[in-house]
């Protein structure tokens, strides 16, 4: 039997109902916007925290974690829309997929307040853990009988300022699991500390305040069992979006966009530079060759120079040993 979505039954032919759905969602969005922008509102609080360093921003916004009654009221209103019409779409941004995910409740620049749901049947023993430059404060709304395992990496000031190399990365170490407690708020310097959730018997619900300003330090993924670094990627959100766009253009075979790829190889973030070069090589090797040679000779990051030189050698081999066919 084919699987059907409730959206297969969306009342497209009922114009009056569709208008009502859109109108009620817009009215609720306007109500929230007015409340948030008022003195003491959420948007006003985020705007006031925008110029602070991550630690100060977390402290300024902590009351929104300490008393989540505002969130309960907002979710009740959102559920009211759905009760009135199951095809309504509450004005909340959904993130994630494949089971786990959440809602973005508010966002201003590097500051994001989100509600994160981890269904218990999606919680397995994680193989990797991710470290992101910044700080977070997280309130446990539902513990689901789960435990939190903290993971730590040592990081020098020079590495944090842009001198990070995969070859010199310190290993990750993990603490014993500790039970999650409903109502607890834990702060993390996510540059050096991360956590994973294990052993749940029920769903886990977290209210997370994250401050992740632009940083030359990449995101770093570590294998938990061995403690080894297994992957790095650009941590800047704009770099991530650009990287996804380049990957899409490469998949589509848009060779006319090669100048955009070349431009991206000049990015300040070394992980973004090399990511753009990898995409360009896959898209158009001939267009990539001059820039790849320049990277091999003079890129400021030693591992980018080494990777570029190794890739450049493949071009040389290809020219010296053409395919017999």
Class from helix and strand fractions:
alpha+beta
Proportion in helices: 40-55%
Radius of gyration (Å): 24 Å
Q: How does CATH name the architecture of the largest domain?
A: Sandwich
User: What count of structural domains?
Assistant: 2
Secondary structure tally: strands: 13
Number of helices: 11
Order of helices and strands: HHHHHEEEEEEHEEEEEEEHHHHH
Spell out the CATH superfamily of the largest domain: Jelly Rolls
Task: Tell me about this structure.
The chain has 325 residues and is of the alpha+beta class. It has 2 domains: 209 residues, Jelly Rolls; 83 residues. It contains 11 helices and 13 strands. The protein has a 6-stranded antiparallel sheet with strand order 1-2-3-11-5-9. Strands 6, 7, 8 and 10 form a 4-stranded antiparallel sheet that branches. The protein is globular, with a radius of gyration of 24 Å. 27% of the residues are buried.
